[in-house]
Amino acid sequence: MTRKLDGSKLVIATHNAGKLREISALLAPFGVDCVSAGELGLPEPEETGTTFVENALLKAHAAAKAAGLPALADDSGLSVTALGGRPGVYTADWAERQWFEGEPGRDWYMAMGKVEGLLSEQGPDVDRSCWFTSVLAIAWPEGDEAIYEGRVDGTFSWPPRGTMGFGYDPVFVPQGQNVSFAQLTVAEKQAMSHRADAFEKLVADQFGDAAHG
Ligand SMILES: O=c1nc[nH]c2c1ncn2[C@H]1C[C@H](O)[C@@H](COP(=O)(O)OP(=O)(O)OP(=O)(O)O)O1
Ligand SMILES: [Mg+2]
């Protein structure tokens, strides 16, 4: 039995604004009182793990310890079949850190282009199948932890399309769709995303019978 959230404030342990928006929307129906790592001024921990699970736990435990509150972290990434699963855990690292209009950010266009470059080297008939993984970890200041994993399959599509979402959304076309994640509203993306898949497992485990939304 995993430990359950008991109504205390929950830290959303991410420094990614797109993730924060999605996780806040997913949690909204459950009346969880949330505060973000940014609002608390928590530092961004170094992601030294080699798996999504390790990094999600590392981020959740760091925030829980620093805040003295339970914390929810997401570690996620895009894995491309023809690239042996890369960039995978290193998805964020493939986008160089840059400053945009005075704000720290990452150069996603460059990162997507790097994937496209490696794929097109393999010729026009290259397998473009790929998937997103999201691992959600909850950690408590006392050291307890819970892990939920989600996945969505799709196709790496070039050129990028759409302006919604974040990160690699403009190049990811989910299976059974002909538009990219960046052409979907938050609600439409939540109906099929890796993060929503992991969240469904979190809800079943954490909120049990009270689950809805
Ligand atoms: O739904 C998604 N749509 C598009 N791109 C996505 C998605 N989900 C993950 N991704 C990409 C971008 C993200 O930056 C990276 C994960 O890296 P990851 O270290 O987990 O996140 P991050 O550094 O951006 O924020 P933080 O660690 O503070 O939660 O994979
Ligand atoms: Mg990160």
Automatic annotation (TrEMBL):
Q: What protein name applies here?
A: dITP/XTP pyrophosphatase
Keywords assigned: Hydrolase, Magnesium, Metal-binding, Nucleotide metabolism, Nucleotide-binding
- Cofactor(s) listed: Mg(2+)
Task performed by this protein: Pyrophosphatase that catalyzes the hydrolysis of nucleoside triphosphates to their monophosphate derivatives, with a high preference for the non-canonical purine nucleotides XTP (xanthosine triphosphate), dITP (deoxyinosine triphosphate) and ITP. Seems to function as a house-cleaning enzyme that removes non-canonical purine nucleotides from the nucleotide pool, thus preventing their incorporation into DNA/RNA and avoiding chromosomal lesions.
**Positions with a binding annotation for Mg(2+):** E46, D75
Concerning its family, UniProt says: Belongs to the HAM1 NTPase family.
- Broad class of enzyme this protein falls into: hydrolase
Q: Which residues form the active site?
A: D75
Recall the taxonomic lineage recorded for the source organism: Bacteria, Pseudomonadati, Pseudomonadota, Alphaproteobacteria, Sphingomonadales
Q: What is an example of a GO molecular function annotated in this UniProt entry? A: dITP diphosphatase activity
Source species, domain of life: Bacteria
Swiss-Prot/TrEMBL catalytic activity: ITP + H2O = IMP + diphosphate + H(+); XTP + H2O = XMP + diphosphate + H(+); dITP + H2O = dIMP + diphosphate + H(+)
Q: What Gene Ontology terms for biological process does this UniProt record contain?
A: nucleotide metabolic process; purine nucleoside triphosphate catabolic process
Cofactor comment text = Binds 1 Mg(2+) ion per subunit.
Q: Which CDD domains match?
A: HAM1
Assembly information from the UniProt record: Homodimer.
Query: What organism does this protein naturally occur in?
Result: Novosphingobium resinovorum
UniProt-listed Enzyme Commission number(s): 3.6.1.66
NCBIfam families for this protein: RdgB/HAM1 family non-canonical purine NTP pyrophosphatase
InterPro entries per UniProt: dITP/XTP_pyrophosphatase, ITPase-like_fam, RdgB/HAM1
